[in-house]
From TrEMBL:
Signal peptide: none annotated. The keyword Transmembrane applies. Residues 134-262 form the DAGKc domain. PROSITE patterns: DAGK. This is Diacylglycerol kinase family enzyme. It comes from Trujillonella endophytica.
Amino acid sequence: MPRHARGGHRAVADPLRDRRWLARIALALAALAAVVPVAAAGSRSLWLLLLTAATCAVVLAAGFWSLQQRGPRRWLAVAVALGAPAALVVLLVAEGLLWVVVVAVGLLAAAAAAAGAALRPHRAAWELPVVPAAAPQRPFLVMNPRSGGGKVDRFSLRQRAEALGAEVALLDRPHTDVQQLARDALARGADLLGVAGGDGTQALVAQVAAEHDVPFLVISAGTRNHFALDLGLDRDDPSRCLAALRDGVEARIDLGEINGRPFVNNTSFGAYAEIVDDPAYRDDKRGTTLRTLPDLLGGRRGARLVGEADGLVLDGPQALLVSNDPYEDGDLTAMGRRARLDRGTLGVIAVHVASAREAVGLLRGASRRGVVRTQAREVVVRSDAPTVPVGIDGESVHLTTPIRCTIRPGALRVRLPRERPGIRPPRGRLQWGPLWELATTRAPEPPAPGA
């Protein structure tokens, strides 16, 4: 018995020990990144640091100008954004210091990676709880054969689903009311609803499933499949999602609503919604974006917005994103992911950058107004216009203001295959205080036998 207890302690303590060593490695690498320029460049190290920082500021400012301007001014800004780092490289080569910068940057990158792993949240903070689930008897699936470039046909999803006992309805006619299809199926006795299609269609059928408290199956047959990504499903082979019909587990997740309309990912206001709403966007995405951004960033186009997130006023954001549960912000690779879909809160990101100076301020963390991240149970968006374009799960619609976004915690029962890729563990936010505390705290003593 004592042997088992000691082994259990090692199983718990080892991850903490590993995180502690990762924190120490991160601090050592960061210190080494600071020592290398001083040792190699001597008195020139301060000049090297200032010059590199100034180049980063110039690139960011010029990049912003390139989005804000048109014609020759835009191309001049692009030339500056590309020319500044090129000039820095030439100067560093001439001074024999290029290797110093490369080594220092490499050490800092390694330090950030080790710190992110050390400060990674506990598994319970990001793993979606699931429970066993009995196989459905009469599943009903809606499939869009055009979605994702024809994934329904390419992966024989209809045939495979029917072989598993599912009734399948193909969306082969325009303007089909998918919610009515789902309600009719429930009236016939369906005990599971599912969708092979884009996230917009997923949300509409998910709302019906939530209203009737029946499980919902996500089949990753859309183009980007953001919802499937955050559920840990296989986005490369949507047929693997069908395994949930015979061997599945179930989780309860949240469902967002905007003026009563459901969304599973996010709703966007401002610049992105205005660009997507442009009729030319579908045929020329890049050209439309570059053509409309100067007016949007300059305030010459688009309605003025005021958001209120549980009492926090967001005055005049150029872009406002409200998500069904918050997006991660541990590192750049995690910005488009949500580790949990059952936190019961909306994620809110508001962006306001009106000048190149404010853009540079974001780089040094001086502009709090530039990017605001918060969480709320309700977000109300008002405007001086009676209607505004809104992107709902990637689809552009016009809604009457004021617009109310809410969240229904645990409203949706989602059915998942037992064997699935799962989500990637989020990295921890780089915070030097907690990192130092983790690296310097002594390990707890093992409990005494029988304690």
